[in-house]
Design brief:
This protein is α+β, with helices and mostly antiparallel strands and 195 residues long. The chain folds into two domains: 73 residues, lambda repressor-like DNA-binding domains (434 Repressor (Amino-terminal Domain)), CATH 1.10.260; 104 residues, Jelly Rolls, CATH 2.60.120. The strands form two sheets. A six-stranded antiparallel β-sheet has the order 1-2-3-9-4-7, with no helix packed on it. A three-stranded antiparallel β-sheet has the order 6-5-8, with no helix packed on it. Strand 5 and strand 6 form a beta hairpin. Helix 1 packs across helix 3, helix 2 crosses helix 3 and helix 2 packs across helix 4.
């Protein structure tokens, strides 16, 4: 237990250093990062100098403004992060709130390790991304292995069957639905360039 507390304290003590490193690497002033994140320059300065510990909401805003996932700031550096091998039997599930969608990681474990992140996706019959379209930074590449899935991108429908692929910029309104009569299996790649 004490070891866990010490590890947590160590991670918290490195937050400011990591934020400052990324900010200066991107040649951003405190004021510019403040404008991007909505967090005051004074608060960012205090976080960088370990004067205050940020809330999770603050960390999410700063991480987004720096083009990183929050996990970048709380995970320790790993060895061999330039190469990631994922054996088929050791794929880890990826958390999703979309009903009927099961994702297994086939690439780096977290966003930000590489520009691309990929998953093996299984969509139950009728599963969808929801009624509303979504959009976000980056690009997606979807390759259909089995079944039938429909993507609607900027009002245009694309139906993918086995062997079909779809590549699109995700700042466009998009949504998807399994329109087949069996589970659909996909390779789903997301690429988010550093900001």
């Amino acid at each position: 237990m004490e070891k866990d507390i010490n590890q947590i304290d160590h991670i918290i003590s490195k937050l400011g250093e990591k934020i400052k490193f990324l900010r200066t690497e991107k040649s951003l002033s405190l004021k510019e990062l403040s404008g991007r994140s909505g967090i005051s320059a004074a608060a960012i300065h205090k976080i960088e100098s370990n004067g205050i510990t940020p809330t999770i909401t603050t960390m999410m805003k700063i991480a987004d403004a720096l083009g990183r996932d929050v996990s970048y700031f709380i995970e320790e550096a790993r060895k061999d992060k330039d190469v990631v091998f994922v054996p088929a039997k050791k794929r880890e599930p990826i958390l999703t709130f979309k009903k009927g969608l099961e994702l297994s990681g086939i690439s780096a474990k977290k966003y930000g390790d590489f520009i691309m992140t990929a998953a093996y996706a299984v969509l139950e019959v009728g599963a969808s991304s929801g009624k509303k379209s979504m959009k976000h930074r980056g690009e997606e590449l979807v390759y259909c292995l089995q079944g039938k899935v429909e993507f609607q991108i900027k009002g245009q429908n694309y139906v993918l069957g086995p062997g079909d692929s779809l590549n699109f910029r995700t700042q466009l309104d998009h949504k998807w639905k399994n329109v087949g009569d069996k589970k659909t299996k996909l390779i789903w790649v997301l690429a988010v360039p550093p900001s």
